[in-house]
């Protein structure tokens, strides 16, 4: 156990905090009541206002440059700075918030209680790309259509992805309006129009792009990790009935674009470093990645070991004070391609990535019941309702249902960290 | 023939100009040599600098507000103002540039020769959505895979679309770097990696969104036209070999995202008003649009009658001074859904549209040879090479080839207008 893993903060509620101990220090954009959005760092149940820390004269050099780049209520310019200033800021904040800090009294004035603040999206997203690298999800969904041959021939070669809608990305807590749309009712040949009847969640990891690339210049696999600023949780809400009718031949469109919810804290690449692991060896018979996607170091430490959880809180559970029902417990190690492979593949045609672009991983399911990352998988396409601890049943989500995503990273010798929550409650269609 | 249709400008080269007579007045963002980008209006072979017109004190009221909103090198805030200020500016500029203008001498100082200016994208695109409403293209492409049943069951009900990549939208004249990517060579079961060997163009209309909507609030079909600011030409460059291998199950991705080229002038909804026509009656047996997509006025005048043309200029043609070869002559009337239907459908699930969002129409082909809007159609998937007037042949595009899109609107009793060119020349892969 190294020094940093043991380090404690003078912010007492941060020590042993589920999500935000001194070892995490995720960045976000927040507003204290009635004030303009600014950048802060989560520490326990508080937010440290970085603008206030700067005003106290406690930052210099690259750490100061980093905070200056967070001005304007979005982290895009900060992401553009890349790793150096981000690490300098992290190290300085770990010292300032550490138990031996000489500035406790001054810094106390820069802390806000998280419950008194509003969180915003951390960056203005230029483009949002949703991948499909959760192989167990691809297999679970593929089985519904092709029981004997669930994965398409390209799956193990290409990090499959599609462009998503950036304008409807929203922070945790934003109500989820049930979408309307065209669907083809079972047994009919003519479509109907109305509220979605098969509303679903998808458990994903979000990846924030740091430094970008020029159009026409691919990012080599060995450099790809340098282009990732951090991570969040992402709920890729899906209208399954709309999706089934609209998606041929160009893919999902309105079935996904009504809202996508993000957890508001950017958990940095540095905070996640202790939870990296080797990419799971590809099973016998699987192809090796093509050379442009292969890097030895990436294979050795490019995977992420993050435990992921989905909870459902129904109106009845809220009314009766019952605990939320766990729908999913899975792990990001089910990603068949690493984040570096996703970055390199995305740019290999010359496509320009920009600071503040967002990737979704695709749904991160496991192979076993209990680990499925969507109701589509859990209910086998709506055929097997799920029994909730409250006595209720669900095939898809009902108005009033709230979905809560959580993440947790734990490893021997490291302080555990989390991501905070990604919540969204369904409200009735207009 | 009404007064406006006959009106002449004191800018002599504008009268009878192929694209930009007094009746057009498209807006764009340009830089005179070495100066910062600002908004201008095309008039003949010149650009009128609107910032200079403002400085001359020649604008007031809504027209002044409109020009003030163009500051900062992007038209997003201008688009957000909606129709009123746009029309006020148009009317004022038609008076100022008309042959009876009292301000000819002063305004001459605000004119720049177009060849001495650099054009930029007119707006910062938040989201770019590519539709598929050109029914003849859908049929021509469908025939390659399903000769007896080219259109999928949803086609005549749903305005099919997918999210495109905003970061690689570029103005006319930007070189087109041949993309690299994964492809599945014929007869192989393992993919290869290398430069695209089936590089293609797609002839599309671009649609600039004006005022947006709040997330969760659909735009009613009767209001949809009010949300459209203007139009451009769009070349949806496509790597057919990459597309064929990557697109299942989530649609096109890297095969399209390397670059999309736009003509830089925003031809306003007002300039196109004389060239509106009734939506072509749906053939016997086709379904009627669902009620949310049906509006009597839209059916009566929602279609656009724009003649569209694609020229190919090869290196040999340039070297030998030969004229460009016309690959396509088609018309925007082949759109099976109107632009209003596209806007309404896009927002019906609650998706937020924002000022400066861009739609592509999808490839606008006709049914007959000579009117096909892509080489995929012209060469029947690469099987029938096209013979060029220069003696060369092509199946797909070669390095050095330049594709030029043009448009023209003509009608008895109206001055003809055009869009300017949308050009792109292929350069070798990196």
From TrEMBL, chains A, B:
Residues 169-189 are annotated as: Disordered. The keyword Phosphoprotein does not apply. One of its GO terms (molecular function) is metal ion binding. The active site is at 137 (proton acceptor). Residues 23-122 form the Fumarylacetoacetase N-terminal domain. It comes from the Bacteria. Coiled coil: none annotated. GO terms for biological process: homogentisate catabolic process; L-phenylalanine catabolic process; L-tyrosine catabolic process. Pfam families: FAA_hydrolase, FAA_hydrolase_N. Its EC number is 3.7.1.2. InterPro entries: Fumarylacetoacetase, Fumarylacetoacetase-like_C, Fumarylacetoacetase_C_sf, Fumarylacetoacetase_N, Fumarylacetoacetase_N_sf. Its cofactor is Ca(2+); Mg(2+). Keywords: Calcium, Hydrolase, Magnesium, Metal-binding, Phenylalanine catabolism, Tyrosine catabolism. Mg(2+) binds at residues 236, 256, 260. Substrate binds at residues 132, 146, 243, 247, 363. Ca(2+) binds at residues 130, 202, 204, 236. Residues 135-426 form the Fumarylacetoacetase-like C-terminal domain. Belongs to the hydratase/decarboxylase family. This is fumarylacetoacetase.
